[in-house]
Amino acid sequence: MKIILNIWRQQNATSAGRMVRYEVPNANEHMSFLEMLDVLNEELTRKGEDPVTFEHDCREGICGCCGFMIDGVPHGPQRGTTVCQLHMRHFHDGDELWLEPFRAKAFPVIKDLMVDRSSFDRIIASGGFISVNTGSAPDGNALPVIKKCSDMAMDAAACIGCGACVASCPNASASLFVSAKISHLGQLPQGQVERDRRAMRMVLKMTDEGFGYCTNTGECEAVCPKGITIENIARMHRDYIKASATFREETSGGGAG
Ligand code: SF4
Ligand code: FES
User: Does the keyword Iron apply (predicted)?
Assistant: First the structure.
């Protein structure tokens, strides 16, 4: 099958970008979308041209590395699917597609379709963890977890940090991502000690990093490849409001003496 691609080419974050038209005459329906781009890149390399840069790692829908816009939709037209798991059988011979990077101030373009999502890492580092004593692993049954809570925690833990929610949001909000991380740990007994601090720090860090506010448009939920729901955002707001009233950061130093 033949696919026509209009791909955003941009050398780095500060240079101007532009759409460039390519043809892939020898794609087939069994290829993943990224394999189809591999074929294009082999051809570009063979001709001495600069291959298209895009990010990928597992190609199994679990690492969260891949992701760009296909015809204005993060990860493309197949719901609940990362672009590495999207297959060419969902397209038709002669289709013309437009590929662009995720666009958000907090995701600067590294090159072509690849963006820098290290802002997500900094949000996680600000509070998306639990502190436990080192030593041997505790017995699995020693800490009972209510079934409903464990289900909600597991659902939230499915977030792979791909950033599609940010790219789809008209405010470039990272609320779905951050709320998934806050919900995941906040449902579990191990996450209770730092629950207030986590909500405060991660929400504030999201704003610091340049992400916008959530206005409940729901675009994020519609494009999330892992089915993260906006219920998590409601839980995040509840935790944040509670923490705002009760939590105070510890200050160092002290004593009158
Ligand atoms: S919430 Fe969904 S879209 Fe957002 S980063 Fe996580 S997996 Fe990706
Ligand atoms: S490359 Fe890992 S999720 Fe797509």
Answer: yes
CB count in 10 Å sphere of residue 210: 14
CATH 1.10.1060.10 maps onto the chain at: 116-246
How many angstroms separate the alpha carbon of residue 64 from the centre of ligand 1?
8
Distance 37 CA to ligand 2 centre (A): 14
Q: Does ligand 1 come within 6 angstroms of the Cβ of 169?
A: no
What is the fold of 116-246? Answer: Fumarate Reductase Iron-sulfur Protein; Chain B, domain 2 (1.10.1060)
CATH T-level fold of 3-107: Ubiquitin-like (UB roll) (3.10.20)
Tell me the whole-structure pTM to 2 decimals: 0.93
pLDDT tens for 74-86 read 999 999 999 999 9
Identify which of 37, 54, 55, 58 to mutate to test ligand 2's pocket (most ligand atoms within 8 A of the CB). 58
**pLDDT (tens digit per residue) in 226-257:** 999 999 999 999 999 999 999 888 776 555 44
